[in-house]
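Budget justification, computational time. The allocation requested in the original proposal was used primarily to generate structure tokens for proteins on the priority list. As evidence of use, we reproduce two of the resulting records. The first is shown immediately below.
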Amino acid sequence: MNPALTATPAVGAALLDDFSLEMTGKDVPRLEEARESIPQGTRINITFLAGEDLGMRLAAARAVKRLGFVPVPHISARRLPSQAALEEFLSGLAEDGTAENVFVVGGDPARPEGPYPDALAVLRTGLLQRHGVRHVGICGYPEGHPAIADGTLWSALTDKAAALGAHRFGGDVITQFGFDVDPVLGWLEAARARGVHLPVRIGVPGPAGARRLLGYATRFGVATSASVARKYGFSLTNLMGTTGPDRFLRALADRYDPERHGAVKVHFYTFGGLRHTAEWIAGFRQAAALGTPAP
């Protein structure tokens, strides 16, 4: 058997026993379709996108909870038009019993739409704990950010981690997705050296068409050189097929060292394919447990 095609048991044991997923407010029907393939209690992040309103975001969090999962609503700092808007969102979550876990991100707008220029500004308001938030996720960028200098990213990460500790939040870091394990492992070591010891959920793209993955990668500044693409499992000259993160996960499991890299789990960006991603994970975990070729 070709070892490169075998899912190692370490993958399931160390990384995939507590994976998380991501969805948008419009993905509730897809989550209902996928529910049987997702372990109960799985953390499901709910994005905070332009074009979605308060009602849709709250309804999505309620649906995640109703279906037996843990809702993790996103709060996009730069998309909040006012303190009142933040309080209204948090109050709605609290009333629905879905406020315990949130993910706070700066957001995409070039200019803030209100008083919060970044995630740290939201953390410092005191409003999260006032509305029952207990666990806060924050962003990490192993390959940098196309619009933010590396030094600024590191300062933001260490400041946010310190703020979580000061406010006694539980927390973790969810990274942007990538195709290459090398920068992820290097970033983990650098984060630990800077005193950031929060658990990290490594962002991984769920199985999708190569062309679609490349489009998202371009948008988020993820490296997609020919060598990186080959390492991940697709070719930049042939984007017709579908590819999954099996090579990436095996490489991560093979080289992951808890002493150097700290607590690590996996977060799947589903790009609308919740059921496809959930079924792929189930098949990969089963293959890892049996030592048979991965899907």
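The second record produced under the same allocation is shown here.
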Amino acid sequence: MPPPRITEAKGILAARLREIRSEAGMTGRLLASQAGWHYSKVSKIENAAQMPNETDIRVWCRICDAEEYVVDLIAAVRNIDSMYTEWRRLESTGLRHVQESFQPLYRDTQQFRVFQHSAVPGLLQTPGYARAHLRAVIDFRGIPDDLDDAVAARLAQQQVLSAGGKRFMFIVGEQALRTRVCGVEGMLEQLDRLAGLTANTPQLSFGVIPATARPVILPPENFWIYDATQVRVDTIPGQYRIKIPSDVALYERAFARLSETAVYGQAARELVQAEAERLRGT
């Protein structure tokens, strides 16, 4: 059985196609006849029993005189095809493969927008923090233990931070500064790195949403926006890649609102340093 989110996406696509046909004043049999399809195909598509391909979408919209919807509908089809990747398949040989699978995307992306509420994003992790984080994932999922290789692959990803022509915007919740992913010394090292990142540059900005803030929106998931073309959302059972333009735009809007709530520069540094002082006092 497909994950609920994919089932929901298929249902939304089916309902939209049914709406387009209805607004065109066409019956399912008439649409099928003009498309040269078996009469049952339209019913199957509209009940999410059969996924339309890109050619089906183009034909459907042409017959219904709704070609302005082709781009979004094709994006929806592609999104359903690729939005979900089971971690078990990616992790079947360990976490190194998972970390390395991001390299082509990182290489091709010019603008990164990252929101994480309670953990430091991988591109900003110190070796000790990364090791503890990946160790927890390996132990929880019961996957092959390739910790050393996985840590090396994660740290290798960070080379993209110095690549020319790219822009990185990171926002974390204040909870990310407090979550004890590793021991005190490791956390202090991580916090020291984050403090250095608060000296924002044209290439990289780092913001913190204070625990006392009242964001207009607080997403239930962490998300990464790659340019304006796709969004990655990580969940416990798997990873979603969202590519529908209207959905990507919604995440862009959410990130803009979160950016307005976050603090930067000296204010962010004070939050990081306050947590470091608290740790030193324990």
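A brief technical remark on that second record: The two ends are 48 Å apart (CA to CA).
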